[in-house]
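anyone else get weird line breaks when pasting these?? whatever heres mine. first is seq + tokens for prot A
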Amino acid sequence: MIAQKARFRHSRKLERLAGYRLPDQAFHGATLEAISSRLDFGRLDHTLHQQILNFIHSFLRCTCRDAPMCGCPEKKFSREILELRENGLDHRQIAQYLQEEYGIDLYPADILSFLEDSVHVLEAIRDIANLQGMHDLCKNADSHIELLER
């Protein structure tokens, strides 16, 4: 999954604030736990403070009982990448946006691979929907494929 490859650029700063060793993976359980409950945001510089707040607002806000370990943050992150692509950004622009908005480093090649895999999944959904006579789902999958491939 693409979320496993996402890394915080300033993970060592977050580690110092948390007071214990944190993995640099943005969606690792220990990192999510530290961000959602243990960080003293007053000690962050303005840019990192804003990036962490954006991260929390975009990916950690859910009402699941097991939040943030419920899987919602990873799903929201994947959805964000797909929406950015559907809005016309290429894989390099998406990587730059993620770095500026959330402080997340992600290789453009990993994003491209994720987008290609997503198209293959949508093609499978379209084919099965077509076989099952689910024409609305087939059209919906086709429109998403078209937006991802342009």
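and prot B, same format (seq, then tokens)
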Amino acid sequence: MTKATELAASASDHDPRVGLRAVAALRRLLEQLEAVQVRNARSQRWAWQEIAEELGVSRQAVHKKHGRR
């Protein structure tokens, strides 16, 4: 089982402490994965608008979040 799979399983634990810690860890992982994929898209010359459409957010939101990296 991968770490992400373990975290996903823990997120539904009956103990709120375990579940909330797993949710927080998944959130951090998701942010890291998003940053990697945005860098990947930008290195392939994707426009901010294209990235935003795939993420389901506005162009301004994705540029504000990732534009300085």
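btw re prot B: Residues 38 and 51 are 7 Å apart (CA to CA). The chain has a mean pLDDT of 95.
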